[in-house]
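Summary for the lay section of the report: proteins are chains of building blocks that fold into shapes. Here we show the chain for DUF1800 domain-containing protein and then a coded description of the shape we predicted for it.
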Amino acid sequence: MADQNVPPRRPRDDRGWAATPHTTPVGYGDPTPYGYDAPLPDPGGYPIAADPRTSSPYAGHPRGPRWVGPEGLGRTAPARTGGRGLPDLDDDDEPRGGVGRRRAIAVLGGTAAVVAGGAALAMSPQVRGLFEDDVVGDATGTTVTDGTAARPSGQQPSTVRTYTEQNESYMGSRAGAALKKNAPAGGRTFPGPAAAAAATRVTVKTVLAKDPVLHLARRATFGPTPALVAEIRRMGIDPWIRQQLEPDTIAPSPAELKLADLPTLKLSVQQLRDQRDQLNERGAQPERELVDATVARQIWSKRQLFEVMVDFWNDFLHVAAEFDGGEVYRTSFDRDVVRAHALGSYPEMLIAANKHPALLLYLNQNDSRADAVNENLARENLELYSVGVDGGYTEKDVRQAALLQTGRGVEDGKYVFRADRHYVGKVKILGFSHANNSKDPEKADAAIDSYITYIALHPSTARYVAQSLATRFVSDTPPKSLVDRLAKTYTVNKGRIKPLLMALFSSSEFWAAVGQKVRRPMEYLVGTYRALGVSPEASPKHDNGDNRRTPFARGLRQISDKLRELGQFPMGQPTPDGYPDVYVAWTSAGAMVNGWNEAGELVAGYRTQFTYVKPERLVVKPPATAGAYVDALATRLVHQKLTAREKSLILGIAGVAASAKVDATFDGAVTAVARAILASPQHHLR
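The coded shape description reads as follows.
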């Protein structure tokens, strides 16, 4: 029987997914990553920074390029308050006779993209030209999940797509082609990461400093901090990576200890079921506390590479945090599947996932039986979680896998194998065959595990994981040479993850790819908290008011709410394809402007649930002249000086010359100057 303690499911569409409710997070109204309109440039060539208090700038605009942004198609953007003395970027005032803030910061942020020849891709009219005639792959065909209709059993799923392969389809655009021209073309493996870093010459065009320590800090963490950079330099590249690959040896940070403020994190599935009413009365929402905790770990954990890999697997083996039943099961999935295996073995992770109530309920496996097969889990195991849509399987393989997996389900909050629902009969799937001639739970379960192991170690899976990992760590268009070597490493090591990462960090392609990734909205905001040195302790002036939840818990909820506005939060994609991991998918003026405004809030220290470094104290001994102060502040926040043009724009925002004398507050403009630096490409790139 179905788990009686899980709320009734919403009506399903023809794939079995729950119909999207009106409370869907902003930016997720469309189940595919497509369907959004591009921002319209104003007459001066800069995108219109929509006033979120009125309406979306996209409403009524003819369908154009497929841009992903926080507002969605024709949606009203969420309301937000002003910057309490720090104007929103919509307010294009002229401070002290200088350059308008919105326009100047748009120019800074507009050069954040990575393209060939150093051309800007994000915020100029030329960008629109790159996308005007673009045709991006889209989903076609239909899928039957109830076992009643005929299927094109011999047809390749790549011709009857339920999902496009997101990253490749985005990068198939002309913009993607431009990005590819500036990516490293090939390379080789070295004995270790430090040797690879020392021997690799960076030839790509980028505004980032070609410093291997900074490059490692940007890619293997959620953002460099002065302490982190100093730690890598002190330890050395190889010892630091080795330590990060052993996260249990790294002491928890004070913020991680404060996660005890989130009462549901350590509760078992049974405890969450038993305590549901009490938790509701206290306002505790397990699925949201999981998101909050994940954000906290990304910002403050010293186990940064581990957290990056947790985020990677949460996109690759994706289960949405807020599916029907997520409040009971998603925390356990995070703890017992993703985190338990994030640096372990992918085949073991996939086996564990396929026996976890979260995945079984999310993909409707609990409803599947021999006489009414539901194909959702079988399909995604092949299409998304292993070989990929072009991995060589057919619709017949999906059907055979779905038959084999019948019997697996959830009862009383636990995984169960129901022999009476299991199909008995020989199956053949993508070269795997099994007699499958027993309803004995132990034997039938073992047969399914054998199949899951087979697809997890399939050559197509090796390549799919390698491609995804190289896309995350190296480039939106990773070199084939690297993908080939990583796929071989995956196969030789039977899907173990640490050797795969060591091979990645020991490749010249990794170290040559400086500036070839752009932060997605979540990475931008998390990186901003890290750059500003925000402390998890409450500000002395904080008035908690509602004492049911601590300032730390409430502050984390504010961050995750802001991430919802930006269009990306941990485990937030409602469909099982996870978030796209390429820049072209996130080119949204609305998200950029919203992020910059939030950076201004953080610089000013308005979120009193945390403690902030006062902007005039970010630089310990501020220089006396404006130009030198901008250099020092940029070095503190983005670990390098800005270009002459960017520096000139920022001085224009402050309305002073480089030689002008300023005090520690930059004569009252330090908050605006710091925010402008956080809008620069040096902060957007990773």
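Put simply, here is one thing we learned. The longest helix spans residues 326-341.
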